[in-house]
Amino acid sequence: MATQNSNPVIHELSDTRATQGVFEILDFLPTVPTWERINKEEIFEHIRHLNDPEHPLTLEQLNVLSLDNIQVDEVQSSCEIFFTPTIPHCSMATLIGLCIRVKLLRSLPARFKVTVKITPGSHASEFAVNKQLNDKERVAAALENQHLLKVVNQCIAHTDQVFDSDL
User: Does residue 64 lie within any of the structural domains?
Assistant: First the structure.
């Protein structure tokens, strides 16, 4: 298989670590404090080390993922991740989004609704890819394909990093 972007720009890794963050508004809600609180830094920590399907680099190194493109709503138990393919016609965009979705579904509490989208204006087939990535039936069907599941697992492999707070 020929690589579409044979010379990608490699970006510096950030020094972001998952932190508890500030959740003052949630302290007024009686049920939320009993939940495990999740913030965007923790979401980023889960997905930053995902491997690119074409290159021996992480999605963070390729600037496909960034902390600024993650939104978390604790009250609604939802998170929305935007990712930016390295080129506007990237044929791997759906696969990259699927890897992000699978990693978060495996890592986050079941109460979370995960939405994965392409950063607006960064891909020629943005609408179609977003529709595929956020359709439960399409995602389930894709993961029934053993070859595709193997590729997803390879992109996710070795991405569970030890948090400083776990030491």
Answer: yes
Domain extent at residue 67: 32-159
pLDDT tens digits along 51-101: 999 989 999 999 999 999 999 998 899 999 999 999 999 999 999 999 999
Number of domains present in the structure of the chain? 1
The model carries a pTM of 0.77
Burial annotation 117-134 (CB, 10 A radius, 16+ → b, else e): bbeeebbebbeebbebbb
Residues 6+ apart with CB under 8 A from 115: 78, 79, 80, 81, 134
Report d(CA 93, CA 83) in Å as an integer.
9
> Which tokens is 165 given?
């707070």
Q: Per the domain annotation, does 164 fall within a domain?
A: no
What the block records as the tokens of 139 is 């995602």
- pLDDT at residue number 166: 46
Helix-helix angle 40-47:93-107, to 10 degrees: 120
How far, in Å, CA of 1 to CA of 28, rounded?
Answer: 54
Distance of CA 110 to the CA centre of its chain: 16
